[in-house]
Structure formats: structure tokens, C-alpha cells
């Protein structure tokens, strides 16, 4: 039997739970109609509080997950995985509960016309009541929640989140949040009963309470240890993210709400709190990644699909949503700032077999890669990222699609030639990309048609297939480039490579390998039943209902990957682009060569078998 107040009554409503705010909105409109002004309605202010409190949690989440700013001060180095994200999905349930409780309380509250905007005496009374009543009561009740029945049926849910996040503060049972209502509401209620209540007190006390809660769960140490060295008493008056994290690691210590003095009085203060805080703040807790994937942004809207914006969006494959449209101006401004700063930033990380893998991103957007005057600037940013990785001790750096464009830097050859003493291995990952595409082609196929046939991938795929005695129609206008590739094939296989100059030549071929974007008209030249494999970035849009379209080459990471909580662009959870996976395999195998420039066709099967050996699987 489920324990009472251990689950939310609206658990099964999904997003429809926000309709519970409907009566508050209706009451607010009714009050405005009667009183002639909307601002004199307590119910309107409850709705404003809900929105602003959610914003406080969002802003703290955004800051704490801006790893390019906070990586060296993270308390727990592990990433937040999909399991924790899903469990905390409805973190804002407590805001609904408190809004409904507030509606009942304010229904009999004094009229806003009779209240001052701010009463400093009321603020002082609330502060004293918080210290003298809310803090010790919360401390005592919190300790009770760590015993037997209460922990098993209520508090264990909160401790199931391994990595503290601002949203984790709301991940608890209704009973626990009712206790928090008492802790937060008692000081305000006391001030109102003593005749010193104000609208400003409601807003300020609520915001400060939420701010401190989010700070404690932020997983980023924000206090310099020098502050506590200079003012030792201060460490007992305000907790730190490090202090709170120890409560989640060692559950029988650091129970306070915000003030460690009550842990000191109750003899539950973890003696390692200050030393660990010093260690984390000084950057000693930082870890050097073994593998880095150097990504890039595709467009302004997709730039919102990062771990530090909306977790509910980045934890799912990217699709355009109307809710993102109002954020376009903010994303555009962020793009301009990144251009001005021109620094590679850290997006996310995960652990695989105990080794740290990170994703960095260059501050360049997809369209910029096709601007001739931007080429040198982009290469400079990629080069700086490689040199930074080399200095840090990174073992392998893999380049995302446009960062290794042949016209841009020869598939990474530019950097390896310029810096022959690099210790970090630079990898374009295209060998595995080619392997993924080739292993998607059915064994009974006798003829294929390739666009982008003389590109790095097109060349490798064509040479591999002709060795298998599969006829390859290579679309290219350059006879010189075609002949150069044909001469690379064994003499007995050269006959299987055929140059074509028009799409009409493939009207009877049902296997198209697309390396160049196809317009609707060009797609309609394919016969019904055609399957379009593709390695074009961005991926082509499917217009034919009588044909099938493959996704960009990708592989699923091994099952033992940890801390992965973001989808790579449009990929499913746990799935990464093949070039990303190619870098992972390069690292796991310990290969010492750079994988840049032209693809070594002889290594396609070697890389494919290595990927399968390490637990990567085709999608």
C-alpha cells in the first residue's frame, strides 16, 4: 500500500497539471473586474510568483550547467544522466502545491490596498522567526525523515538523485514539501499577524528562500574559501553547495536548512565540509578529459538544444518547437557574444569505462562555414582548441562534420602538418562513418548511385564497394577527379566505377548514397522504392512517400556509459554521430596515429570490428 502523501495527486495528468492554475487565474480576473485593477488581486501575484520562482530555478540550472564557466568548481564531477532527468521531470510539482495553499491563505488575507509595499519591521520579524523557529524545526524534522519509515517511504526519493541540481531541490514527496511550506511560510505569517506584513515581504522572502535552496543544490562552489578564513563565524551562518552535497553523500550529517550552526549544536556537522570546500574552490577537483569531441552549432534555434538551457528539450532529440521561437533573439545575442569572445566552450561530458569524455564546441554556426572570408577565423578556433587539448593532456580529439570540411582544412590535415609534435591524436572519424553507411547496404545490392562521389567519404565508399564487385555510379562533372579515384582501385575492380554526369542516369537504381543535398526535383528522379543513405550535413529533407530515407550515420554508445544526459542534435538518447563514435573507438583502442585527410579504405573493416568489440552498436 502506498504511504499517504508520498505521491502527487496529479501524477497522471502530464502537462495538463498546469490547468490547476485555471481557478487562480479566473479568481484573479474576477477580482480585477470587481476592484477595477488587476494588481490588487492576491491571486494574480500568486501566478507571478509561480513564474518568477520557476525562473529562479531555471537561471540557477543554466549557470550551474555552463561547464565552460563552472567546470573547475563542480562539487560532484559526474554528469546528470537520463535516469535522473526523467525522475526529476516533474520537479515543479511543489510550485503548484504551494500556489494552491497560498490561494487558500490569501483568500482571507488583508486587501492589498491596506498593505504597504514594504515594511522593514516586518522583514526583520520574518528574519528573526526564520532563525529562531524555521531553521531549528526544519533541522529536527529533517533528521526525523532520515529514520526508518519516513526515510523509506518519503525521503529516499529525494536522495535517489546522485548529482545535486537546482531542480533536485523540488524532487521530493508532498509531505516533505508541506514541511517546507511551514518553514517558508511561518516567518511571513508571523509578520502579518504582528501587523507588519507587506507585499514586498512576500516576494523578497519567497525569492531569497528559493535562491538559497537552488544555490545549495547547484553543484558549483560559489563561495571563495578566503571568505571563511577571514570571517570564521560566517561558515556557521550560511551553507555552501559543498556543505550540502556532503549530506547527499553521507546522509547522517549536514541536516540544516541554510545555517550550519544548527548542525554544530546538534553535533551532526561533517568535519570535512570546510576542507573539501577549499579543495573544490581551488580547482583541485578538476579532471582532465581523455577524449574530446569538437562540435559546432548548426543554426540559431538548434543552439538552444544544449545542456544549460532547457533540460526537458536537450534530453530529447532536437525538433523545432514553437516554444523556442520567442527565445530566438536571446540565442542570436548569445551567438554574437560568442563570436566576439571567440573561445571554445565546454558543452557536456560523460564517463565511459572510468574515462572522462567531453564535448567542446567552437563558437561558429553552420552557415559561417560556407562563407569564404570566415575560413581563417574558423580554422584559428579549431587550432586553438587542439592546442588547448594538447596542453591539458587530452589523448584524442575528434572533429565534428563541418570542423573537418575538406575545403576548410583538408579533413584536419592542416593542423597535423602545422604542429607535427602534437601529443593529442586528431581524428576526423570518417572511417567509421563510411563503415556505418557501408554496413547499412543490403548484401544483395548490385548497383549504387553516389552523389558527392569525389568527396572524402564518397571516394572511400566507392572504392570499398567496387572491391566487392558492386557497380558504382559516381555523379561528378570532373573527369579528372573521377579518373584519379578509379586509378586507386585494383585493376580488376576499376570497371565497376562508372562516371555519370546527370541524375537521370540513376533512374533505375534503388540505392542512393547521398553526399550532396538533393532538391525535391532531384529526388523525384529516383525510382519508387529507393532508399536514400546519406552523409550530407545538414541532412536532406525527405519529399518522397514511396521512398525511404536513412538518418545520418550514427552508433549507439556502450551500455556502461555514465553521466550522459543530452541528445546529440537529432539523435536518440545514447546515440552519437559516427564521427564522434569513431573518435571514441580511436581512444579505446589506444591507436597512436592521426586520422586526418583521405580515408584509408583498408582500415574500414578494422575500425568497424573495433567499434563492435567495444560495445558500440549500429542504430
UniProtKB/TrEMBL annotation:
Which residue range or ranges hold the Fatty acid hydroxylase domain?
A: 128-268
Q: What is its EC number?
A: 4.1.99.5
Where, subcellularly, is it found?
A: Endoplasmic reticulum membrane
Q: Which UniProt keywords apply?
A: Endoplasmic reticulum, Lyase, Membrane, NADP, Transmembrane, Transmembrane helix
Q: Which reaction does it catalyse?
A: a long-chain fatty aldehyde + 2 NADPH + O2 + H(+) = a long-chain alkane + formate + 2 NADP(+) + H2O
Q: Which GO terms describe its biological process?
A: lipid biosynthetic process; response to stress
Q: Where are the transmembrane segments?
A: 42-63, 291-313, 319-340
Instruction: Check the record and name the Gene3D superfamilies matching this protein.
Output: NAD(P)-binding Rossmann-like Domain
Query: Per UniProt, what is the membrane topology?
Result: Multi-pass membrane protein
Highest taxon above the source species: Eukaryota
UniProt GO molecular function: aldehyde oxygenase (deformylating) activity; iron ion binding; oxidoreductase activity
What GO cellular component entries does it have? Answer: endoplasmic reticulum membrane
Q: Where is the Very-long-chain aldehyde decarbonylase CER1-like C-terminal domain?
A: 448-618
Keyword Membrane set for record: yes
Q: Offer one Pfam family short name for this entry.
A: FA_hydroxylase
Family from the record = Belongs to the sterol desaturase family.
Q: What is this protein called?
A: aldehyde oxygenase (deformylating)
Q: Say which species the protein is native to.
A: Ananas comosus (Pineapple)
Amino acid at each position: 500500500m502506498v504511504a499517504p502523501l508520498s505521491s502527487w495527486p496529479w501524477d497522471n495528468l502530464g502537462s495538463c497539471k498546469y490547468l490547476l492554475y485555471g481557478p487562480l487565474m479566473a479568481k484573479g480576473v474576477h477580482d480585477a473586474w470587481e476592484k477595477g485593477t488587476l494588481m490588487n488581486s492576491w491571486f494574480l501575484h500568486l501566478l507571478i510568483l509561480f513564474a518568477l520562482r520557476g525562473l529562479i530555478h531555471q537561471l540557477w540550472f543554466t549557470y550551474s550547467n555552463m561547464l565552460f564557466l563552472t567546470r573547475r568548481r563542480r562539487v560532484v564531477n559526474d554528469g546528470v544522466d537520463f535516469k535522473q532527468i526523467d525522475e526529476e521531470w516533474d520537479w515543479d510539482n511543489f510550485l503548484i502545491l504551494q500556489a494552491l495553499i497560498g490561494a487558500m491563505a490569501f483568500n482571507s488575507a488583508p486587501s492589498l490596498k491596506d498593505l504597504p509595499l514594504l515594511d522593514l519591521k516586518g522583514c526583520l520579524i520574518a528574519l528573526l522567526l526564520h532563525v529562531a523557529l524555521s531553521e531549528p524545526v526544519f533541522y529536527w524534522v529533517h533528521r526525523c525523515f532520515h529514520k526508518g519509515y519516513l526515510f523509506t517511504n518519503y525521503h529516499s526519493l529525494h536522495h535517489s538523485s546522485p548529482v545535486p541540481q537546482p531542480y533536485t531541490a523540488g524532487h521530493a514527496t508532498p509531505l516533505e514539501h508541506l514541511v517546507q511550506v511551514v518553514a517558508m511560510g511561518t516567518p511571513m505569517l508571523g509578520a502579518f499577524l504582528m501587523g507588519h506584513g507587506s507585499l514586498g515581504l512576500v516576494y523578497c522572502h519567497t525569492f531569497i528562500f528559493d535562491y538559497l535552496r537552488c544555490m545549495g543544490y547547484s553543484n558549483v562552489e560559489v563561495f571563495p574559501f578566503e571568505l571563511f578564513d577571514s570571517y570564521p563565524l560566517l561558515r556557521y551562518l550560511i551553507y555552501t553547495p559543498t556543505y550540502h552535497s556532503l549530506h547527499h553523500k553521507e546522509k547522517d550529517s549536514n541536516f540544516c536548512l541554510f545555517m550550519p550552526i544548527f548542525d554544530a549544536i546538534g553535533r551532526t556537522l561533517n568535519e570535512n565540509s570546510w576542507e573539501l570546500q577549499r579543495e573544490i574552490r581551488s580547482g583541485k577537483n578538476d579532471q582532465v578529459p581523455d577524449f574530446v569531441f569538437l562540435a559546432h552549432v548548426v543554426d540559431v534555434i538548434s543552439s538552444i538544444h544544449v545542456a544549460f538551457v532547457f533540460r526537458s528539450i536537450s534530453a530529447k532529440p532536437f525538433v523545432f518547437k514553437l516554444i523556442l521561437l520567442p527565445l530566438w533573439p536571446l540565442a542570436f545575442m548569445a551567438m554574437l557574444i560568442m563570436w566576439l569572445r571567440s573561445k571554445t566552450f565546454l558543452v557536456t561530458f560523460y564517463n565511459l569505462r572510468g574515462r572522462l569524455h567531453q564535448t567542446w564546441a567552437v563558437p561558429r554556426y553552420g552557415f559561417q562555414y560556407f562563407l569564404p572570408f570566415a575560413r581563417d577565423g574558423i580554422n584559428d578556433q579549431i587550432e586553438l582548441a587542439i592546442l588547448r587539448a594538447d596542453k591539458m593532456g587530452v589523448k584524442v580529439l575528434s572533429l565534428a562534420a563541418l570542423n573537418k570540411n575538406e575545403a576548410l582544412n583538408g579533413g584536419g590535415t592542416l593542423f597535423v602538418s602545422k604542429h607535427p609534435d602534437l601529443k593529442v591524436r586528431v581524428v576526423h572519424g570518417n572511417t567509421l562513418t563510411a563503415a556505418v553507411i557501408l554496413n547499412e547496404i543490403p548484401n544483395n545490392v548490385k548497383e549504387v548511385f553516389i552523389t558527392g562521389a569525389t568527396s572524402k567519404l564518397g571516394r572511400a565508399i566507392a572504392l570499398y564497394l567496387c572491391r566487392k564487385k558492386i557497380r558504382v555510379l559516381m555523379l561528378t562533372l570532373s573527369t579528372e577527379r573521377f579518373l584519379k579515384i578509379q586509378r586507386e582501385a585494383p585493376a580488376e575492380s576499376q570497371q565497376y566505377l562508372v562516371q555519370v554526369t546527370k541524375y537521370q542516369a540513376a533512374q533505375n537504381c534503388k540505392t542512393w548514397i547521398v553526399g550532396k543535398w538533393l532538391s525535391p526535383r532531384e529526388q523525384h528522379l529516383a525510382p519508387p522504392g529507393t532508399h536514400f543513405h546519406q552523409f550530407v550535413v545538414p541532412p536532406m529533407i525527405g519529399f518522397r512517400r514511396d521512398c525511404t530515407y536513412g538518418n545520418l550515420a550514427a552508433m549507439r554508445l556502450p551500455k556502461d556509459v555514465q553521466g550522459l544526459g543530452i541528445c546529440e542534435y537529432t539523435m536518440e538518447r545514447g546515440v552519437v554521430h559516427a564521427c564522434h563514435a569513431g573518435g571514441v573507438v580511436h581512444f579505446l583502442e589506444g591507436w597512436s596515429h592521426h586520422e586526418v585527410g583521405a580515408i584509408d579504405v583498408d582500415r574500414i573493416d578494422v575500425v568497424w570490428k573495433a567499434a563492435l568489440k567495444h560495445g558500440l552498436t549500429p542504430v
